[in-house]
């Protein structure tokens, strides 16, 4: 049952993300009075067509994704006022990047909603959290932490060893500090949850603790959810999306570097892998599914911004080059370049799909 629901969620999620992307192009085109020759939902043979407020539309056989066809998009009608080719550079660029913007804005909206209803701390920790402190859920008896007077539910506010001071925002920062000062006396500033009182505990992390106890003998709490007032959620969501964009861009650059060297990252997931993740997300609940949707929407925005043939980024670079140089690239050359780029992307997608089967499907279902 969860498998069917997960596959349905994957199908709906990807369709919505693609519709949002094409919707960005559509809205920008209408804003600049560019004639939209057709708005299509799905691909393949047409099932039903019509006209809505002067815009032709079509529902196609394969109900997956969408497309927008603009008048003059191929550059042959530059004399027409309602042609894409007849617009100035900035208007063209806005239309081209509007799809990217649509996916980015959707991610920001979803993250804003999550901040209002409960954003998982572990997701914030990916880019460095600015919310709350690290909470201790358990203290091992006779451990350095218990000897120093630390109790369960205490929050770690500050760590100090000599002149080094750390204000931890996540568990990883605490662990890194402690492991860096084994067998050294450290000062831990904590806040007692019951009273709100702050106090200092002086203790020494063990370099050879008993099995499964750790250097201090403390266990951190599980998943925490950060909630902010609804009127602050939008700003936190937008700022988090910007930080996540930087993090994801760095990850994409690293993935491309590894791919160029012949080492395709095993943790790269394509449609098959995302479908499996959708099944897990349905089982985990609505918040996890929202997170997955936001992350994929952000990924689509960033990938489409890459100046690779067949992606929006390359179209923007082409427009800037033609405007700056005064050289109009022949349409037949563009068709070859973009066609080759699309073929490369399809081959890469096929390879990633094969890798998805090896990494996600076979270990899970067979």
Automatic annotation (TrEMBL):
Q: Which sequence ranges are marked TM in the entry?
A: 93-117, 286-311, 332-354
Q: Which UniProt keywords apply?
A: Hydrolase, Membrane, Metalloprotease, Protease, Transmembrane, Transmembrane helix, Zinc
Q: Does the entry feature the keyword Ion transport, yes or no?
A: no
Q: Can you list the GO cellular component terms from the UniProt entry?
A: membrane
Q: Name one GO molecular function term.
A: metalloendopeptidase activity
Look up and give the membrane topology term. Answer: Multi-pass membrane protein
- Protein name in UniProt: Peptidase M50 domain-containing protein
